């Protein structure tokens, strides 16, 4: 993404505005060819917050009772983009009562009056595609009890946005923004009278994007699981819409869906959420399973490897490991230095997590969330395994540089469980050390044994290690292994400080131990969750020590306490609270 203040970015925005205004002169749509059905899943709790005048977007909460969504104070550009994308319409539709419908109708027609002639920040192809999908999907909800004049304005605006999108979709960034733009154009072309001519070119462009962006293993360049889910959801929506209209779905389109579905199943934790890596969150509740069901693809990657991640699963336990070099170039602007980090979920309860993306909490949190110490892995000498480089093309989105280049891994079956072995060279250039990690999950899912090593593998690496040791006057190279805990996991030191007991709300008790070669502490941590007002306080288990030799080994284990039942009925369910 480029600097929004650069000459090229300003020119692109000016051309967007020009084409938006030109599109008002085109022949408008006059109605739907068939009445569309809603595709999207909204959050009832978030919809109730909107009705109450609490606007929570991009990590900012603006409370303004009895105020139009277009009259509130806008904290930043990302907040404005979320407003103009209209994804919040899903949440109002989830409430679905008369009050929610009145708000939805009022705010939509206010947008048409205020911004419909090409004004405001909403005239970008990706936001327009997102907006078209919501307006069309919720048309029954929106048009109820509207008079002919309002209906005509609605259809006129839909037609205008479709024409604009047909002329400007090429100006979106490759990846998710372009998938949004093209899916919106396909939706509009199929649903609106007089817009059918745009379907074939949009489908052709979507095919090209599928071939470019979705690799043979069903992954995307950013390696962001939540972004992959968004792409997959758009592709399934487009395929369903084409099928319902009696239009063929191309081989490239169907094959992309067939490749992505097994990858998403591999990245799905036992609680139904996605593994949180490289800027992605857990995914909106229900969206992953809904999209997988709509795709009708049932398989999972047979070897447990997908998009550079490795999965171990047994019993009620799932483990997902970042087992590949981080993304590169423009694909790395939101990537994290998380190589060999893992997350572990037991049943419906996340236990070991990564801190997550801090992008919704400001630039400092965004940078902190990308660093290695924000992940459940080892960091050496206070450094991350990859570094943030120069600002990407002059803006705040920095590329990830100097990361691991070689990440050999092996998945196998041990005598009593499943084994992951991996290593990375992210500290080889600076310290001469390779980080190797082994994880073994028992067949019943009740325990995992881990081993982490720092090794100087050859003479060149040993000489580099010796130079660093000399610079530190032979005091050793400090390292820290972190195991971040989910906020709902209650942890305390046990056995005189030799172990940590971790209680989950399901009633399970897990015990963390180590081999005694390191110092163990229970320290504060944070859980960075999209859509919340502020980071959530939590804890982390930290094993710290110093590397004095060419090989340093740390062994640890995480297992259910013996008194924890094999079969637990986890019936506790929490109300969604987005403001804490």
Fill in the keyword field for this structure.
single chain, 580 residues, alpha+beta, Beta-galactosidase, Chain A, domain 5, nine-stranded antiparallel sheet, eight-stranded antiparallel sheet, 23% strand
3D structure, described in words:
- It holds the Pfam family Hepar_II_III_C.
- With 580 residues, this protein is of the alpha+beta class.
- Among the domains are: 15-176, no CATH class; 342-392 and 399-560, Beta-galactosidase, Chain A, domain 5.
- The protein has 16 helices and 21 strands.
- Strands 3, 4, 5, 6, 7, 8, 15, 19 and 20 form a nine-stranded antiparallel sheet that branches. Strands 11-12-13-14-21-18-17-16 form an eight-stranded antiparallel sheet, with no helix packed on it. A two-stranded antiparallel ribbon has the order 1-2.
Sum this structure up briefly:
This protein is α+β, with helices and mostly antiparallel strands and 580 residues long. It has helices at 7-22, 44-51, 77-85, 89-95, 98-115, 125-137, 139-143, 148-168, 176-191, 199-213, 225-244, 251-266, 287-295, 363-370, 428-431, 459-471, and strands at 54-57, 60-63, 305-306, 309-314, 317-322, 342-346, 349-353, 378-380, 387-391, 398-401, 409-413, 417-424, 434-442, 447-455, 477-485, 490-494, 499-503, 509-514, 519-527, 536-547, 551-560. Strand 3 and strand 4 form a beta hairpin.
């Amino acid at each position: 993404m480029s600097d929004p203040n650069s000459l090229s970015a300003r020119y692109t925005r000016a051309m967007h505005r020009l084409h938006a205004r030109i599109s008002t002169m085109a022949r408008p749509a006059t109605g739907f060819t068939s009445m569309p059905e809603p595709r999207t899943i909204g959050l009832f709790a978030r919809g109730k917050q909107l009705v109450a005048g609490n606007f929570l977007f991009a990590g900012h909460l603006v409370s303004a009772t009895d105020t139009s969504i277009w009259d509130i104070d806008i904290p930043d550009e990302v907040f404005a983009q979320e407003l103009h994308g209209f994804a919040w319409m899903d949440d109002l539709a989830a409430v679905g009562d008369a009050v929610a419908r009145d708000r939805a109708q009022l705010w939509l027609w206010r947008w048409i009056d205020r911004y419909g002639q090409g004004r405001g920040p909403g005239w970008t192809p990706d936001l327009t595609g997102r907006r078209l999908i919501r307006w069309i999907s919720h048309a029954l909800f929106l048009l109820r009890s509207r008079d002919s004049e309002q209906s005509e304005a609605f259809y006129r605006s839909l037609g205008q946005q479709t024409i604009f999108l047909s002329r400007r979709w090429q100006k979106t960034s490759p990846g998710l923004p372009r998938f949004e733009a093209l899916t919106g154009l396909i939706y509009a072309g199929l649903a609106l009278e007089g817009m059918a001519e745009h379907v074939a070119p949009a489908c052709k462009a979507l095919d090209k994007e599928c071939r470019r962006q979705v690799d043979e293993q069903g992954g995307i360049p950013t390696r962001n699981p939540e972004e992959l889910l968004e792409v997959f959801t758009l592709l399934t929506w487009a395929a369903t819409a084409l099928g319902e209209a009696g239009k063929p779905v191309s081989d490239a389109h169907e094959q992309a869906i067939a490749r992505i579905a097994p990858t998403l199943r591999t990245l799905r934790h036992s609680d139904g959420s996605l593994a949180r890596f490289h800027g992605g969150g857990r995914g909106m509740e229900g969206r992953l399973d809904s999209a997988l069901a709509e795709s009708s693809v049932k398989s999972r990657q047979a070897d447990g490897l997908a998009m550079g991640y490795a999965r171990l699963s047994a019993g009620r336990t799932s483990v997902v490991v970042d087992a590949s070099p981080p993304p590169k170039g423009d694909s790395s602007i939101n990537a994290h230095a998380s190589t060999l980090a893992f997350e572990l979920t037991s049943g419906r309860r996340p236990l070991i997590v990564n801190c997550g993306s801090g992008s919704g909490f400001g630039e400092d949190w965004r940078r902190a969330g990308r660093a290695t110490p924000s992940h459940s892995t080892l960091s050496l000498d206070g450094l991350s395994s990859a570094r943030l480089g120069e600002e990407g093309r002059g803006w705040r989105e920095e590329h990830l540089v100097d990361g691991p280049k070689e990440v050999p891994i092996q998945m196998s079956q041990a005598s009593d469980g499943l084994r992951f072995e991996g290593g990375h060279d992210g500290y080889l250039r600076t310290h001469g050390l390779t980080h190797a990690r082994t994880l073994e999950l028992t067949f019943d899912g009740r325990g995992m044994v881990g081993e982490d090593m720092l090794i100087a593998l050859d003479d060149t690496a040993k000489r580099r290690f010796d130079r660093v040791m000399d610079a530190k006057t032979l005091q050793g190279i400090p390292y820290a292994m972190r195991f971040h805990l989910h906020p709902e996991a209650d942890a305390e030191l046990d056995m005189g400080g030799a172990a940590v007991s971790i209680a989950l709300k399901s009633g399970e008790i897990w015990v963390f131990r180590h081999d005694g070669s390191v110092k163990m502490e229970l320290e504060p941590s944070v859980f960075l969750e999209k859509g919340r007002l502020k980071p959530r306080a939590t804890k982390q288990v930290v094993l710290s020590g110093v590397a004095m030799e060419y090989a340093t080994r740390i062994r640890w284990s995480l297992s259910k306490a013996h008194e924890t039942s094999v079969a637990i009925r986890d019936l506790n369910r929490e109300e969604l609270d987005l403001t804490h």
